[in-house]
Amino acid sequence: MKVFITRVIPEKGLQLLQEAGLQLTQWTEKRDLTPAELIAYCKQHDALLSVGPNKINSSFLQECSHLKVIALHAVGFDNVDVPAATALKIPIGNTPGVLSNATADTAFLLMLAVSRKAFYMHKQIGKGQWGFFEPTANLGIELSGKTLGIAGLGKIGFEMAKRCIGAYGMKVIYHNRHTNQEAEEVLKAEKVSFDELLAQSDVLSVHTALTPETKGMFNKAAFDKMKRSAIFINAARGGIHNETDLLNALNEKVIWGAGLDVTNPEPMAADNPLLEMPNVAILPHIGSATVEARDAMAIMAAKNIMAGLKGERLPFVVNPEIY
Ligand code: GLV
Ligand code: GLV
Q: Where are its TM segments located (predicted)?
């Protein structure tokens, strides 16, 4: 059986697949495959291990309905037309849980960096602008005792909240479709309406999936309802915020600062004005980029591939309704 892998993945995942006697093709170029290339490769393989933003849409799935399994090297599956895959009985796998620590660390890092303008000052030093000790210059804001608002409190949001409570004794509020019982019990998190989340958060951190409901959820109307001292963090998906509205909100001091691990589009243009703003910190979608998380993701994706090729239920399945 043959597996197509759209990026070089950690050795631990490859080893499992090799030990299972599978024939592997890895795409090693430092660019994404075009849709036509992806289809052409998949037609010669039995399974797809997809890394990155490949569009697994309905036309891809129709063309490649022979695939026995599609394993994502990611927790997010907004790039997949899941109903179309389900209709064709193609199991889709993902990697939940193992990247929650790494992604929460990224959101926490962005929060701190924004609160102290750290990325900006680092760049200024490189431009010869060390500055002087001025009691009123380079001022950040402190996080102790502030309110953390989480949009989409799942596994990652839970870890972010834990960090903010442990480090700063922050109060946690959240907005979800469903109540997160564990977060309410363990973290004393309080479920609020979206408007209350906007009005009360000192730090508003996004950890929801990108869906038709959350697309563009953080737009002008939302930023207008936030505190002028608020920090907006998005380590989930760039499509959840409107980047022009965010830029305007920062320019007009409607909110205080923003930290993004995800942008819209990706990659962000090198001349994007957000990159020059003092109260902004941006990272190139590295939420899960730790040795620990990526090894675990590669192993989970490999296990999904192996199960799918044997016709067994995937251990980490996005569309269990096919079984
Ligand atoms: C990365 O963004 C993921 O969804 O794992
Ligand atoms: C994030 O919200 C998750 O489900 O891990």
A: none
119 with 262, same domain? Answer: yes
Query: Could you tell me the pLDDT band of residue 241, with boundaries at 50, 70 and 90?
Result: very high
Which of the residues 45, 175, 207, 237 is marked catalytic? 237
> Is residue 321 among the annotated active site residues?
no
Beta strands 257-260 and 2-5 are: unpaired
**Residue 7 bears catalytic tag:** no
The verdict on 313 and 264 lying in the same domain is no
104 and 94 share one domain: no
pLDDT for 258 beyond 80: yes
Is the pLDDT at 262 greater than 80? The verdict is yes
Whether residue 131 has pLDDT greater than 90:
no
The residues with which 98 forms a beta bridge, in sequence order, are none
Alpha helices in 169-219 (DSSP H): 181-186, 194-200
Residue 311 belongs to domain with CATH number: 3.40.50.720
Identify whether the C-beta of residue 78 lies closer than 8 Å to the C-beta of residue 210. yes
| Closest Cα to atom 4 of ligand 1 | 76
If asked whether residues 199 and 222 sit together in one domain, one would say yes
| Pocket lining for ligand 2, CB < 6 angstroms | 75, 96, 100, 152, 154-157, 207
